Records
---
Amino acid sequence: MLTLTDHINLGVVWTLDMLAICLNLLLIGVIVLRTPVQLRTYSVFLLNNAIIDLTTAISSALASTRIIINHETQTSLFVFLGPCTLFSEHLCRLCQALLVNLVTQSSIVLLISFLYRLYIIDVAATSRSPLSSSRIWLFCSISFLLITPLTYGYYLEETDVSQEVLNRFDLHGYTVSNYNIFSTRSLVVNSVVCVISPIVFMAIFVVRRMLIARISQAVS
């Protein structure tokens, strides 16, 4: 049975997630139906990020995870409060894995979009043919494949919880998974994410500075 704290948690999470779902559905509709022909190619990036954000919000709403730190075993307990518990514990684990790793995916697509803008300036200067929408979809798909092993590794690390742990934290009746943050697989997954994210954001900063410089040069 859900406690008062659980209900408050669900209320906050679902308010934010439903708002995000509605806004991203609206954004996807605007991108698909109202994008001018001249911007159709670039809109692929906007559409990809909107889909990623929508998937993240849906995953968050389905899982509605409460996290408990088990200091004795140095593990995290994911207590799932959302509607994923009505279907399968494996769905809850997948939602949690997607929620964690799609943030990295979104930043990678953002970096590719900045690189594309830089590329377009070079195309305009050299009269080369710009990339087609299908190629941009291909690049975005490849970036998604890069985080798939991380998501799968995170999912596999979510394991069953012992009866002893359920008794200790009074979690009977809840759907709970155990995440060992110090296992080899978990250390690899988290290390890769911790390395990729700063590199991607630093690259975005550098490319953005280059883009601003190119635009200023073109205007002057």
---
Amino acid sequence: YYRLGIEQFNESSFGGEDYSHGSTVLLDAIEVQWQQFCNEVLSRDPHVCLESISIGILYKFFEWRLNQKAGKDGRRLRGTTKSSSLGTAWKVFRLVYERAIGTKLDPK
């Protein structure tokens, strides 16, 4: 029974997405904001910025993100009004970092 199960096991059904659609949307949004910050503010490659990340860069990224008034196509952004939203953005950024670099970012 077990040998037959191993021989007939379909690995492709386990190779799918790690995140739900909503999580992927959040990850992509933070990644786009990171690219904008690195390209427009720092004039550096976003991947190089991630590789040489520092607390100062992180602080200024989130400060820049909070100060954004216009989003895609000039649409007005709602802004961040709750600290939990900033905490979520930090957690999502850590996942973006891990996805790009391959190692975890220290949560502190």
---
Amino acid sequence: MRTWGDGLLVVRKPNRVRVMRKQSAVLPEQHSDMQQANSTLHNPKVERDTRQTRSTAKLRISTNLVASRFKGLQVNMDAPTIRELRTLERREFQLRLAERLEQMLDAVLSGSRAEPRIFDHELESLSIRKASSLDVDEEQPLDLEPVFFRPLPLPPGTDIRTLVKNTQPEHLRPYWVNCEKFDRKRWCGDTSCAFFQMQWIGRAVGCSWRGLLSETCWTEGQRCRDSECPHHHDALSNGKFVTWNTHYVKDSLKPHVMVAVKYPYPIPGGLGSVLRAEVASAMYLMLRQLQHGESVDHRTIPVLVRTYYHDRGARITQAHWDDDHLVIRQSRVLDFHASEPTDDAYLLVRWITGTPMGETRYPDSACEDEDDGRRYSQVEPHPMALTVTA
């Protein structure tokens, strides 16, 4: 059993998904609508009507059937506009994509403890496409691949080190721990060193009311008791990695989301291949956004994952869903192995406090703008009219 938000429950059984209201075993209005659908669609009189009348009757029945499932949407179900019908269609697509991502997430996590990496020959079977490398240094004059995040722009004559220093009170300024000074086996294990570096990054970035982050469009994810709240974040973990420090755009103006992943254990062969932790974390954050349905007008939900690898550095992964694949772009490995904060450490701070960008919304066609205020009974059925399957 899994909660899908807005007072609904989804009960999963073999080859069947049943939607119910919380604390209620039946949906009487859905039952009556189904009876109405059967009686209407099999009525000889309706069968003799024109194609326009039949289409109108079927669509009205469909909108009644989905009324409870999409209860949170602002839609006039008695006489929906063309735009409202498209909203229902997009929400239906989101829920189906959420089911797909949930299956993919299970497949990715199923082998994560035995083998932390996903090799290139496995990507296609998991519906993952690896695009070109993400240029975190912005050295390429032209990037033809989709880009949804940019690092924090620096004012002329200012560097990131000065910004970090000036945006934090002295007693809260980050302190870089040099793990090489400690006996690792006795005092500072790999897990502790990775945590110390994440702590430095966190203090350098700040929070929604203090530091660099407070001057950006980002805010932290919530840890509220009700998992239905829009920016609630439950950590994803399998004992080898854990997600941490989720960021969303304030007021949900954009669907972009960021998350940190702590992977403090050595990986045989290094960080060359894609980690299951990186892919799983991106899928999980995307899944949460889809379930809450706040981004129903957006066809793309970009995710930026920063993975803290062991105690040596980090890697940035950009992910989004395109067509039938999860598309990922990964940066080079950022080097943190030094007695003082490295240039790469400050570069990561710029990416965490950077700018969400890129086209994520559905394109509004001229036809959609023209039909925005018209009721369905006044126009012909749209070719993309919502179809509801049992």
